[in-house]
Amino acid sequence: MHPHLSLRRVHIGILSIMTFPKKNARIYKTFIHKEAVLRICCEPFEVVTREIVRQRAILEGYLLRHPLFQHSLKPVAAQADAPEVAQRMAGAANRVGVGPMAAVAGAMAQLAVEAALQAGAAEAIVDNGGDIYLQAAAPVIIGLYPGKTGEIGKLAFSLQASDTPLSICSSSGKMGHSLSLGDCDLATIVAKDASLADAAATLAANLVKTLDDVEHTLNHMVAIDGISGVLIVKNGHVGLAGKLPPLVKIH
Fold first, then answer.
1. Which of 83, 179, 235, 241 has its CA 20 to 30 A from that of 171?
2. Tens-place pLDDT, residues 209-222
3. CB 197 within 8 A of CB 91
4. Distance of alpha carbon 61 from alpha carbon 22, whole angstroms
């Protein structure tokens, strides 16, 4: 745990995106490809979606040739024929100590945003099932909302355009369809590399089974090179460590 932050009782739930100020609200579109459901804010929307489809096909070809890469829960080295997406996933998984597929959503989100920026977009935000990568041109609020009740209010990260590009990825042992070996309400990682943030969020959620696990997990995660900060929610308590964007309350 961060030496200056104690666990605080707060009710929050999963990550989602809101914009600030509302009068300049961004438009988000939903894109579904196979089991992936993405929310995208980018003027060249088709550039982003084409890149997601293209990268998915490239990765699927690699997985057919190397099935261990898909099924392992431990790091697997990228082979000589590994495409860029697999190399990013393998590198992140190796640094964190999880299977490569723990980094897939973050890797896809970042590659999609990078494609949009290369096509001339000034701003691109991709939320791949709670794994977010963004390059913003104006302030953005990344909200952490109450789960079922929302009775204590709402917390959020407040980002300036100068904070980006940035990745904010989350994992949970109680919400979502991804495999988790823990019982964490929410583990959120902030990093520049979306593959790393995604893999690290998976590990953090795996490590938290009881409230007593939170402090050790916070310390473990911020010790990984490349991770800026971590937020963990367990049984209505919040733990923070490292360098996180400012927390604000939204109504």
1. 83
2. 999 999 999 999 99
3. no
4. 42
